[in-house]
Write a structure and sequence with these properties.
106 residues; alpha/beta; 5-stranded mixed β-sheet; 3 helices
């Protein structure tokens, strides 16, 4: 495993929300992503949803992180204004019941 220099440079702060209905998946992903150089700031659980979505609140500041992360977890990307509850989070990854880790690249 290696840390991609673009991930290090962008330092996007990522929140993972487990909405899969399966306990522990977000924590497992958190450990994997941290080992690759992603900056995970929180892991939460919420009600189950179907689709895995990566919400990008970075205003274009983390394009490589968005691409790598979306590819890794097969997530749809939604660019949104940062909601009030996002705090200092740049990216919010909601793991839906369709979640499958896909790619071994960063």
């Amino acid at each position: 495993l290696f840390t991609d220099p673009y991930l290090v440079k962008e330092k996007a702060r990522i929140e993972i929300i487990n909405a899969t209905g399966t306990a522990g998946l977000a924590h497992e992903l958190e450990l994997d992503l941290r080992s690759l150089g992603y900056t995970i700031v929180s892991v939460e659980t919420t009600d189950e949803t179907n689709q895995t979505i990566l919400y990008d609140f970075s205003q274009g500041a983390a394009p490589f992180t968005v691409k790598y992360l979306a590819d890794r977890v097969n997530a749809a990307v939604r660019v949104n204004a940062k909601p009030a509850d996002a705090g200092d989070v740049d990216l919010r990854l909601v793991l839906g019941s369709d979640y499958q880790e896909a790619d071994e690249t960063p």
